[in-house]
Specification:
It is a single chain. By secondary structure, this protein is of the alpha/beta class. It folds into 3 domains: 182 residues, 3-Layer(aba) Sandwich (Rossmann fold); 47 residues, no CATH class; 78 residues, no CATH class. The chain has 18 helices and 8 strands. Strands 1, 2, 3, 4, 5, 6, 7 and 8 form an 8-stranded mixed β-sheet that branches. The radius of gyration is 21 Å and the shape is globular. GO terms for molecular function: ATP binding; ligase activity, forming carbon-nitrogen bonds; transferase activity; tRNA binding.
Length: 402
């Protein structure tokens, strides 16, 4: 059985994701779609809208055959780390190809961009340092250095101001640099841009637009046309039990406590907390009644919203620099769910997997897995304290079967 892999968050699974899955399977001529999915905390440094079990069911009911979890150390990391962890896992589970959505829609410009930056690596790094000294943010410095470098490039390259193009580039960079055999494919995004609000004249919307509508309108009905029926059912099931979806505002009292219970010096032990920001974190947490107030006080050219959110994610979960960065390679494949087709793939291929397959977390004491379990526990604690209901722990939940 031939497998194509996708890297996902499904926060939530929407019609654009359904299109991506069907196109990926068709273009790869694959029998099985395998999704490596972020757990309870996401790449932009925020808690998931609803837990990974509901999001796994969304995926399995909409064309995905196997869902495996991207470990916390990768799913909350910078784009390079996120991509490295995800693509290594897809290779380890036997995918011959991986498919990502992009604004570009064609694979050749991505490959051209990779070769351009590899060929001029020293010049590129020098330009980045030059732009950083002007006071602009590191992501802006990367973009400006790239734009300057590609001015004289004859081959078509990608627009690295587009978020999905950026992640797509890092997927290809990871596969090439690590000398993996898995081949890249890209599927063009349709209709909605990454940051676009929902458009009631369409059935396609970005996950960002859907989440914004949910929290502004407080009505699940507002987003019904943008998600498959099974996604809507899972979201309705969550809402019926918990009454509210999750964002940092939900967890703010407990995040605030997590910040203020530490001294500024103690805060520097947590992953991604760079020296100097710790005093601003404490000062802002003392004054802020909401997460939005807190973030607006500390956001600056040097510290982007996403960078700050990753910092506070690690403070909330209690993950230190040493714990986050001790390994750059996944050490297991954590199975979250499968269809009958996915189960058949496992039976046929698991002896060839490059990493051990874990279906029950009690079976291993792997340090990387322990961080995943802690992240689930802290997400569950926030849900219980804020909404008064418990979610299932990693120890209680076997892989979902559809």
């Amino acid at each position: 059985m031939k497998a194509v892999g996708v890297v996902v968050e499904y926060n939530p699974f929407h019609n654009g994701h359904f299109y991506h899955i069907s196109q990926s399977k068709s273009k790869a001529n694959a029998d099985v779609v395998i999704a490596v999915m972020s757990g309870h905390f996401l790449q932009r440094g925020e808690p998931a809208l609803l837990d990974k079990w509901h999001r796994t069911k969304m995926a399995l009911n909409n064309g995905v055959d196997l869902v495996i979890e991207l470990p916390y150390v990768f799913c909350t990391g910078h784009a390079t780390s996120f991509a490295e962890g995800a693509i290594q896992l897809l290779e380890a589970i036997g995918c011959t190809k991986f498919a990502f959505g992009s604004e570009e829609g064609s694979i050749d410009p991505f490959l051209n961009t990779f070769h351009l930056l590899k060929k001029h690596e020293e010049q590129y790094n020098a330009l980045i340092k030059q732009y950083v000294t002007t006071g602009i943010s590191y992501p802006q410095s990367l973009y400006k250095a790239y734009e300057e470098l590609r001015q004289n490039e004859e081959n078509q390259t990608i627009d690295l101001s587009q978020p999905n193009n950026i992640l797509g580039y890092h997927y290809i960079e990871a596969a090439k640099r690590l000398k993996l055999e898995i081949e890249p494919m890209t599927i063009p995004r349709i209709q909605a841009g990454f940051h676009d609000d929902i458009n009631t004249q369409s059935t396609i919307a970005s996950a960002t637009g859907i989440r914004k509508a949910l929290f502004e309108q407080h009505s699940l009905h507002e987003i019904k046309q943008f998600v498959p029926d099974e996604s809507y059912n899972q979201m309705e099931s969550w809402q019926n039990k918990y009454a509210s979806f999750i964002n940092w505002e939900t967890f703010w009292p407990y995040l605030r406590f997590s910040i203020l219970r530490n001294t500024p010096e103690q805060l520097t032990q947590f992953a991604d907390v760079s020296e100097g920001i710790e005093f601003a974190l404490v000062k802002a947490a003392k004054k802020s009644e909401t997460f939005s107030q807190f973030m607006n006080q500390i956001k600056s050219k040097r510290y982007t919203w996403t960078r700050l959110q990753r910092m506070v994610t690690h403070i909330y979960t209690g993950i230190t620099k040493e714990q986050l960065h001790y390994s750059k390679m996944p050490s297991y494949i954590r199975l979250l769910g499968m269809t009958k087709n996915g189960q058949a793939y496992l039976s046929q291929n698991k002896k060839q997997f490059q990493l051990p397959l874990i279906s029950r977390v009690a079976s291993t004491n792997d340090p990387m897995l322990q961080l995943d379990i802690r992240a689930t526990d802290m997400y569950a604690l926030g849900v219980e304290l804020a909404l008064g209901k418990q979610i299932a722990s990693d120890y209680q939940t076997p892989p979902i079967r559809v």
